[in-house]
Amino acid sequence: MVKLRKYYRFSTLFITAFSVFLLVSCGGNKYYNSKIEGKQIAITEQAGEVAAIDNFIKPYREHIDKELDSVLAYAPETLDKSKGEWQTTIGNLMADMTVEMVNPIFVSRENKNIDICLLNHGGIRAVLPKGDVTIRTAYEIMPFDNSVVIVELKGTEIREMANYILKEKKPHPLNGLKIVADKKTLAVKSLTVNEKPLEDSKTYYVVTSDYLSSGGDNMNFFKKSEKLYDMNYKLRHLIIDYFKKVDTIPVISSKRIILE
């Protein structure tokens, strides 16, 4: 150990002295870079894996895979966001589970109930396949770190929401709000919130994501909210908790938007 320390000190002194020598000896000359050359080297599988690194990572990867593939529930059929014009089974599930999981928290914190849930169709990134439902399923459906928030909106802003949904013509996940519209003009005929007629001056509590609450996907009506409640709850975690709660995933085909 003593010899190594002496060798280390000697090496350090030698390198330092040599560096000073180079700086002094080159002090009188100026060098300029006139040309830079390079070439692209593709990274391919031909290079192979470094066994030591792979062996180090392997147990962690296996542990993560085991966790992600833990079975939480069962889906009797595939839920696909592409199958449905105004609502889809996976969209209905997303909206309904959000209310089911978040409303008890909102009641306990604020002594208030959620009236409506609105999420975005584009936020659902994968199908929920028939068969075993796992933690990996939740990550595939919701890969984003969006959080759950609740915003206060007046009835007039709920009308804006309904007009937005009809104009978009996308099956955005919706719960609590029932829209009846003209099948030709898409003009709103009636709006009900939990089976009661919408009141323009009434305050409604809408659960959504932090992304949408700031006007994401052009949902600018959310920005008119005067108060926002942060639930400190990731949407993905909500999905996982719901999967753990139920044994079989329900297939929800109820209509939230009706054209007549």
UniProtKB/TrEMBL annotation:
Single GO MF annotation: hydrolase activity
Domain 5'-Nucleotidase C-terminal: 86-223
Designated name of the protein: 5'-nucleotidase
Listed InterPro entries: 5'-Nucleotdase_C, 5'-Nucleotdase_C_sf, 5_nucleotidase/apyrase
GO biological process, one term: nucleotide catabolic process
UniProt GO cellular component terms: outer membrane-bounded periplasmic space
